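Handout, section B. The chain below has 367 residues.
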Amino acid sequence: MVNRSYAHQDKPDHTAYHHDQYDTDPTRTERSLLASAGLDNKIYVWFPATGDKYREYELDPTSSQVNALRFSSDGRMLAVTGYETLRFYDVHSNNPLSKIRHVFDPAECVRNITCVSFMSAAESDTTESDNILAGDEVVSCSTESDSVITAGEDSVCRLWHFKNKNLKIASEVKCEEYGVINCLTTKHPRFTVVAGTNQGYILGLNLKEQKKTVLLSRKGLSFQSLDCQGSRDNYILVALTTTGMLLYFRDKDWIERKVHDGFGLCVQLSHDGLLLATGGADKTVRLFTIDGLSLREAGVIRHKHLKWVWNLQISHDKEHIFISASEGVVQMWSRKDNISDGTVKFCRAYSGHEKSVVSLAYFERNS
């Protein structure tokens, strides 16, 4: 397992909120948002097209680092995980108290929360939405984002509902015999969650029935990142190991391919499942187009400032790749004008982070 968590017990929350110098108009009509967080305890929300900062949240220096970020499906809420801590920010509110912070007690969770994802009411079997009291303000939680999935170093995957102004555990599946959960996706069409562990297991979890199924076992490997796209009868599941090995599942077959000369850190599928991107410790991002069971190389991103590539995101039109890396690097690259020849051009850097940026989240409106 590549441990991105140098965490300790979280202290009382004193999140600073900076907004005066940035565009804080929540009615602005940008179609997309990009969020980044790293070891400097800062969270930025950007307008990707211009590079302008929309929000900045600065955690207390004694707090644990951010392990994972995720936008809700409507782009309003940003979930942030840390050591035994789960925060939510209403990114369109100008009120600095517009956040929710849940500190887990020992009965709920211990150690780092490494993964987080929102779920719709239909997916989580939730039939009602709620409002959450955050400081002195009530934050609305839409019906499309009223449940959350978390997992982490305690090897337990949990489904949380917002009930009575608080987060409540609705269901959980314990996976201690399979190792620490490093990564998960909620986009698999047959399971609530698919999770990857540091002992070489990919697990399909049904949280409603509290059941688990071993989808793949590769002893000696550690799965660092995974993603999934598609329908129940035609889906793609990809996973990246810390040895730089990519595992690709489609039509009942697993294909293995070495894609990085060192640690593999992140893998992402495009919205339509036709483009695949991976990042690693060999200072590269590698792009592949998907044609049935075939992966075809579609470009390599290298840059003098790129070191370990911790996370990446793909725009819905597959024209832009967002990258976070060591030494405060957050970048956007474009393949818009050169898709046929595999050339990827540097577009812009998002400046502000002072240490490694280990987490990215991307939101884009469908229309």
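Note. Residues 5-14, 19-27, 125-145 have pLDDT under 50 and may be disordered. Compare this with the example in section A.
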